[in-house]
């Protein structure tokens, strides 16, 4: 048997350093996450702080950033790390993505030197947890109309409002909060022990259960001017953070898809019906072939975008939208098809396939729904804005 990604010899497209980083992350996922993640998912409880410290020791938190204790790894290396983490569980990859590509990136990109020194080294080490507060109960895909307000009061700022579906919020030490002010959208690095700030755990989730998700309430949160991210000007700032996080999703979703396909192939070659393994039936082989095709195409797309980012320093939003739209859409299709191969066992927690499928329902929505990415691509193709 040949592993799906071996069909095109994609291994030859990676450098020795990239393969080494991937293997390190794969080992920690195998050793630290896989043995317990089914139980974490079932209970809706994950040792986030313990994982953050372990990931920090490996340099995984903010690994693609430079300075302040960050590893300064390449985009492809970061993508491979996301792929291995999400092959274990999307919620665990979300912990790393939100910490590094949203909270840390926002401070690294838009913060003052004082803010960077205060927060980034501890976040890179996993000693401090960060979250990113943009989405609101009534404003998910339309952040331009966010309800959270920031008003000046003397030398201070006062924040009022709420944020919803915020990964890491119940555990966070610092929250990057976006709000509307007279001068437009502004961002703040908010210590979560500030009076008026509260975060409650969102319960009864059916997806990303191995991830801590919260609702943030801001009631007269008073902050000094030094808490404002000085280089964040307008809505473009938080949207650029989303572009940063979407890159990890492009890779991570392929990890979940690969894990589902691995399990389905193993199952199909050992499960017998009608006197022979189900992998010997034409319909099953057709499913496996089609899924392998989409997995390889998705990996090559992710690798191309990673190489492009490493060579140019940045990706255009529509390029990231192409990657997120395609790879998550194909990953969830792969997970669902793998579930059919496992039959009734496909819904059992003894196998990871249904857990991946459920998690990918959230990944399909967050950091921009499929519809939003279609409109981003459509606007680029036509020059016409279909958002309004």
From TrEMBL:
A matching Pfam family: Acyl-CoA_dh_N
InterPro entries: Acyl-CoA_Oxase/DH_mid-dom, Acyl-CoA_Oxase/DH_mid-dom_sf, AcylCo_DH-like_C, AcylCo_DH/oxidase_C, AcylCoA_DH/ox_N, AcylCoA_DH/ox_N_sf, AcylCoA_DH/oxidase_NM_dom_sf, Glutaryl-CoA_DH_mitochondrial
GO terms assigned for molecular function: fatty-acyl-CoA binding; flavin adenine dinucleotide binding; glutaryl-CoA dehydrogenase activity
SUPFAM superfamilies named in the record: Acyl-CoA dehydrogenase C-terminal domain-like (SSF47203), Acyl-CoA dehydrogenase NM domain-like (SSF56645)
Lineage: superkingdom: Bacteria
Gene3D superfamilies linked: Acyl-CoA dehydrogenase/oxidase, N-terminal domain, Butyryl-CoA Dehydrogenase, subunit A, domain 2, Butyryl-CoA Dehydrogenase, subunit A, domain 3
Residue ranges annotated for the Acyl-CoA dehydrogenase/oxidase C-terminal domain, each copy included: 233-381
Swiss-Prot/TrEMBL keywords: FAD, Flavoprotein, Oxidoreductase, Transit peptide
Residues annotated as domain Acyl-CoA oxidase/dehydrogenase middle: 131-221
Cofactor list: FAD
GO biological process terms on file: fatty acid beta-oxidation using acyl-CoA dehydrogenase; fatty-acyl-CoA biosynthetic process
Domain Acyl-CoA dehydrogenase/oxidase N-terminal: 15-127
UniProt record similarity statement: Belongs to the acyl-CoA dehydrogenase family.
Name of the molecule in the record: Glutaryl-CoA dehydrogenase
Lineage, uppermost ranks: Bacteria, Bacillati, Actinomycetota, Actinomycetes, Micromonosporales
């Amino acid at each position: 048997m040949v592993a799906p990604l071996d069909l095109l010899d994609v291994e030859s497209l990676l450098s020795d350093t990239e393969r080494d980083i991937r293997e390190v992350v794969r080992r920690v996922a195998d050793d630290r996450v896989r043995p317990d993640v089914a139980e974490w998912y079932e209970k809706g409880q994950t040792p986030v702080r313990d994982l953050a410290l372990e990931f920090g020791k490996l340099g995984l938190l903010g690994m693609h950033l430079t300075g302040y204790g960050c590893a300064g790894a390449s985009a492809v290396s970061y993508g491979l790390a996301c792929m291995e983490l999400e092959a274990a569980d999307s919620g665990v990859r979300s912990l790393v993505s939100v910490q590094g590509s949203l909270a840390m990136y926002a401070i690294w990109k838009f913060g003052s030197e004082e803010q960077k020194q205060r927060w980034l080294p501890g976040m890179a080490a996993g000693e401090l947890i960060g979250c990113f507060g943009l989405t609101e109960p009534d404003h998910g895909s339309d952040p331009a109309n966010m309800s959270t307000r920031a008003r000046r009061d003397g030398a201070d700022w006062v924040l009022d409002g709420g944020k919803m579906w915020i990964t890491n919020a119940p555990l966070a030490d610092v929250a990057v909060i976006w709000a509307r002010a007279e001068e437009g959208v502004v961002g703040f690095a908010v210590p979560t022990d500030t009076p008026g700030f509260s975060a409650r755990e969102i319960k009864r989730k059916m997806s990303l259960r191995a991830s801590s998700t919260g609702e943030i309430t801001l009631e007269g949160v008073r902050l000094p001017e030094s808490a404002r991210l000085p280089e964040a000007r307008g809505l473009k700032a938080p949207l650029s953070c989303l572009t940063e996080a979407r890159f990890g999703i492009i890779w991570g979703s392929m990890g979940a898809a690969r894990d589902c396909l691995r399990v389905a192939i193993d199952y199909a070659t050992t499960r017998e019906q009608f006197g022979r393994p189900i992998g010997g039936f034409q319909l099953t082989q057709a499913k496996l072939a089609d899924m392998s095709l989409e997995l390889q195409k998705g990996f090559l797309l992710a690798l191309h975008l990673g190489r492009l980012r490493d060579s140019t320093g940045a990706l255009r939003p529509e390029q990231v939208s192409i990657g997120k739209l395609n790879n998550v859409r194909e990953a969830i299709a792969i997970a669902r098809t793998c579930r059919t191969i496992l039959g009734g066992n496909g819904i059992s927690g003894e196998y990871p396939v249904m857990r991946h499928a459920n998690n990918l329902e959230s990944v399909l929505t967050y950091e921009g729904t499929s519809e939003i990415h279609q409109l981003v691509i459509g606007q680029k193709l036509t020059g016409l804005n279909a958002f309004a």
